[in-house]
Amino acid sequence: MTTTPTSRDQLLGAFDALLQPERFKDYGPNGLQVEGRPEVRRIVSGVTASRALIDAAIAQRADAIFVHHGLFWRGQDGRVTGWMKQRLQRLLAHDINLFAYHLPLDAHAELGNNAQLGQRLGWQADRHFGEQSLGSVAGATYGDAEALARHVETVLGRSVTLVAPAPAEARPIRRVAWCTGGAQGYFEAAMAAGADAFVTGEISEPQAHLARESGVAFLAAGHHATERYGAPAVAAHVAAQLSLEHVFIDIDNPA
């Protein structure tokens, strides 16, 4: 592939045009979070702007990093010490741009985390639900919640936490709802949307009781595991559009 250098501002414009961050009320800033060199040839994508990802991007001689989980979040301590200092020091020393998109990356209809996870699991959303319509629902056919859990485990290559309904409440799975990452708070909205099962990344204490009592199964398949598809899909799309190099680096995370 022949690469053509592009400006940092042009790259930012391409990401913004695709993901439309202005549409979302989010938990932190979307877009360019750390300014690096003005000219970009190579993008590294990953899930989280961890020190491990930044070090891997340095080894790849990246000019820009594109992630779902950036460095800055609403309400965090603003001091640049410890892990924050270490991450920023590396980015600044190597003049690497950091781009981060949170909810806009979840929501993109084709390249986002939810759409990409649905594609891999064989689900085509026919409606959306929840805050900012981030959750998806699709028709699906599984004999029971255990069969659905086996399917998700096979596709993602990891075990899931399944809380199945009590035997008296159990039913076949005909409608599946999902929302990647830490969307356990969407469970009741998924029920209201007609789901027989809900798949997300994490589970908190209340959802186990709701699953047993409601007849709707709850599957926690891992925050990282459910959100590792959107960033490389978006970064690859924009890199192809602008004739840039792109490398996806998946930093393992058991969460």
CATH architecture of the largest domain: 3-Layer(aba) Sandwich
Contiguous uncertain segments of 5+ residues: none
Beta-strand segment tally: 13
- What is the count of helical runs? 10
Structural class: alpha/beta
Mean pLDDT: 97
Helix content: 25-40%
Strand content: 15-25%
Name the assembly state.
single chain
The dominant shape is elongated
Query: Strands of the largest sheet, in order across it?
Result: 7-8-10-11-12-9
CATH third-level topology of the largest domain? Udp-n-acetylmuramoylalanyl-d-glutamate--2,6- Diaminopimelate Ligase, Chain: A, domain 1
- Count of separate structural domains: 2
CATH top level of the largest domain? Alpha Beta
Distance between the termini: 35 Å
The largest sheet is: 6 strands, mixed
Rg is 19 Å
The CATH homologous superfamily of the largest domain corresponds to: NIF3 (NGG1p interacting factor 3)-like
Structural description of this entry:
The radius of gyration is 19 Å and the shape is elongated. It is 36% helix and 22% strand. It has ten helices and 13 strands. A hairpin with a 5-residue loop joins strand 7 and strand 8. The chain has two domains: 122 residues, Udp-n-acetylmuramoylalanyl-d-glutamate--2,6- Diaminopimelate Ligase, Chain: A, domain 1, CATH 3.40.1390.30; 111 residues, Udp-n-acetylmuramoylalanyl-d-glutamate--2,6- Diaminopimelate Ligase, Chain: A, domain 1 (3-Layer(aba) Sandwich). The strands form three sheets. The protein has a six-stranded mixed beta sheet. A five-stranded mixed beta sheet has the order 2-6-5-4-13, sandwiched between helices. The chain has a two-stranded antiparallel ribbon with strand order 1-3. The model has no long low-confidence stretch (mean pLDDT 97). With 255 residues, it is α/β, with parallel strands linked by helices. Helix 1 crosses helix 10.
